[in-house]
Amino acid sequence: MDKVYFYPVWIRVWHTINALMCLALIITGVSMQYSSIENPIIRFDHAVAWHNVSGIILTFNYFIFYIGNILKGNGVHYKILWKGFWPSIIKQFQYYAFGIFKNQKPPFPINKTKKFNPLQQLSYLFIMYGFVPVMVVTGWALLFPELVVNDVFGNIGLFITDLIHVIAGFVVSLFMIVHIYFCTIGHKPGSHFKAMASGYHEVHE
Ligand code: HEM
After folding, report:
1. Residue 35's pLDDT is what?
2. Atom of ligand 1 nearest to the CA of 7
3. From atom 1 of ligand 1, which residue's Cα is the shortest distance away?
4. Residue whose CB lies within 8 A of the most ligand 1 atoms, among 196, 198, 201, for a mutation test
């Protein structure tokens, strides 16, 4: 068994802040969306303030991820090799749906150059370069609606921005639940969490 240093300090710091801020945004977001003013889960003005602060921290943290991926080379793990891509996705899906219950070996085990399997890669790519940026941009637009949204598009612009923000937030929340579940599927249930905590991933090949 070998160990590969896949999660340097900057990724672990980014990931911890990202996870904490997403949790704070989900809790305050759900409170603002679903609790009534008279009977709030969190007092409305407090929920708004915490939601704004968490969103601002998440934004600056996102830049660490974006720039770090470029400067430190971690971005290669997000680059999709289209040749044979869909068959690999299907293979990985079949493993999660059936193979895993028959004690089969994973079709794309972690190796020294690949830290994500194809489904992981696709979901991380969609979330980190799709839904999170959309959530961030619409969040800022809602923080300063008078700057563009209201001026250019009026009330309908504000409504659409809000709708996109809520949908993106919902997808990121769903991702987080599924992501944590899939992180338990490793050599041992705690292997991936141990890797993210220590930086070193075990490679069993
Ligand atoms: C409490 C919440 C979370 C936990 C416990 C958690 C856990 C983990 C673990 C264990 C890994 C390593 C996966 C592996 O070894 O293959 C990981 C990686 C990752 N997580 Fe999370 N995660 C959480 C929240 C999030 C959220 C909210 C996002 C995005 C919105 C996210 C995005 C990612 C990404 C992109 C990676 C890969 C990072 C890289 O190496 O480039 N995680 N997470």
Report:
1. 82
2. 40
3. 19
4. 196
End-to-end CA distance of the chain, in Å?
7
What is the mean pLDDT of the segment spanning 29-35?
A: 91
Regarding pTM above 0.90, the answer is yes
Nearest to 18 by CA among 144, 143, 124, 138: 124
Check residue 29 and give left, alpha or beta (phi > 0: left; psi -120 to 50: alpha). Answer: alpha
pLDDT value at 191 more than 90: yes
Q: Report the alpha-carbon angle 196-197-201, nearest 5.
A: 50
Q: Looking at the structure, give the CATH architecture of the domain made up of residues 2-203.
A: Up-down Bundle (1.20)
**Looking at per-residue confidence, does 71 or 205 come out higher?**
71
Q: How far apart are CA 36 and CA 4, in angstroms?
A: 49
Q: What's the confidence (pLDDT) of residue 205? A: 67
DSSP 109: -
18 close to ligand 1 (CB < 6 Angstrom): yes
Kindly state the tokens that stand for 26.
Answer: 């989900």
Percent of the chain scored above 90 by pLDDT?
A: 82
Residue 5's H or E segment, with its range, is strand 2-5
